[in-house]
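ESCALATION

Customer reports they have been waiting on this structure for their group meeting. Please prioritize. Original submission:
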Amino acid sequence: MEKIKIIVASGNAHKMQEIGDILTDFELVSMKDMGFDGEIDENGSTFKENAYIKAKFIAETYNLPALADDSGLCVDALGGAPGVYSARYSGGGDKANRALLLKNLADAKDRTARFKSAICLYFPDGKTVYGEGACEGKILFEETGANGFGYDCIFYCNDLKKSFGEATAEEKNKVSHRFRALCDLKNKL
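Update from on-call: job pushed to the front of the queue and completed.
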């Protein structure tokens, strides 16, 4: 049986790899593979809204189903920040984002945090299916491990009992927020 082709509305190679490792039942192509390398204005106030905006735009542009993920780190002591601004928290990339987060938490006693993910699968006929997931943990005091990307090396995962930066891709993909959101989406399909 031929696999359904879905465009993944992301320019992030790490996300594409994680999604591909989890959603093996579909033929996934990146929006870059389709020839799109522009930016999609993520102006939603929630992960779910941003995932919808990206998936809808790509599905309508190429008249194919599109899947988008919006995810980020939510830190309790910071009122849920960086949240939807996780990727652009400092304006200077992953290393600067981690440095700013650690600086902002310097005096915080409560370091509980979670990664959250919302996945939207948008079909050209307007049908929309969502999946959501979270992974609980806390923010470490310093970077630990060199695996992953983004905040992984300062996020201690309660399930794994180590940082995502110390986890293999296989370990992370079994408990991550994105894995849980993709599982939620698959269950709804």
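Sent to customer with the following note: The chain has a mean pLDDT of 93.
Escalation resolved.
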